Amino acid sequence: MPTTKKLQDFTQQVRRDILRMVHKVNSGHPGGSLGCAEFFTCLYQEVMEYSTDFKMDGKNEDLFFLSNGHISPVYYSVLAHSGFFPVEELNTFRLIDSRLQGHPTTHEGLPGIRIASGSLGQGMSVALGAAEAKKLNGDDKIVYTLHGDGELQEGQNWEAIMYASGKKVDNLIATIDLNGKQIDGATDDVLPMGSIKAKFEAFGWDVLEVKEGNDIEAILAGLKEAKSLTGKGKPVCILLYTEMGNGVDFMMNTHAWHGKAPNDEQLESALAQNPVTLGDY
């Protein structure tokens, strides 16, 4: 089992990968990717039970579905360092004919990717299908999802959220990345959603909060607690309070880096704040 230091080192290398990928092609979404680096690291390095001998049906293993697919850089980096495909392939991010598209897709056959998630708001629905299939198959593993808070402004999410509790889909853990920002500004300015916790609870979910969503130990504790709540008749929601652009001082506390790549000087500064740990690709 990895120590906290090993998980922190893993996360730091993931941050370097994110920055270098989007800089190389001057395209991509570093802000949300950086904000979720610790979460992905914990999920794939300690929490989930999976095989890197990738099969689409995912029988007898935990599954993960990324709904806010624009944060693909963090997803690709963690998948690569977890053994799904060669780390060197990160060099091909967003290039023509690459398997590493700007938003994850399935037709390239990239191990680890089970759904296309370019359009927002659909991940919950797909995850519900997978979770119910596991129940029908007598498969006791868990389905995990990640969603952006701004993404919850779309209505299909709430149909799925209502369905999950109504049908007692209790092998599902949905995490909401609560960074309070989206492409056009603060979520409260674009479209206020009130209390997301109260909404999920009103829809019949068990809800827990991880206030320090960029802290390894806090995330692990939250995921452990969430797992303990599965199998009890309710879906589980984790509200993960993160900082967009975490780990890079000039990218934090702003929505400006939602979908903008750093220039050469900015990249140098950002990488200086995140020295090499596992080795660059």
Descriptive keywords:
globular
H/E element order: HHHEHHEHEEEHHEHEH
Total of DSSP H or I helical runs spanning 4+ residues:
10
> Portion of residues in helices?
25-40%
Strand content: 5-15%
**Sequence stretches where pLDDT stays below 50 over 5 or more residues:** none
Output the strand order for the largest sheet. Answer: 1-2-3-7-6
In round numbers, the mean pLDDT is: 97
The largest sheet, given as strand count, sense and whether it forms a barrel, is: 5 strands, parallel
Global geometry: globular
- Rg calc: 18 Å
Cα distance spanning the termini:
25 Å
- Counted beta strands: 7
Q: What structural class is derived from the secondary structure elements?
A: alpha/beta
Q: Short summary of the structure?
A:
The chain is an alpha/beta fold. The protein has 10 helices and 7 strands.
Task: Describe this entry's structure for a reader.
The chain is α/β, with parallel strands linked by helices. Helices cover 39% and strands 11% of the residues. The protein is built from 10 helices and 7 strands. The protein has helices at 4-25, 30-35, 37-47, 72-81, 123-136, 155-166, 187-190, 196-202, 216-229, 264-272, and strands at residues 63-66, 143-148, 172-178, 181-182, 185-186, 206-210, 236-241. The strands form 2 sheets. The chain has a 5-stranded parallel sheet, sandwiched between helices. Strands 4-5 form a two-stranded antiparallel ribbon. β6, α9 and β7 (236-241) form a beta-alpha-beta unit. The mean pLDDT is 97.
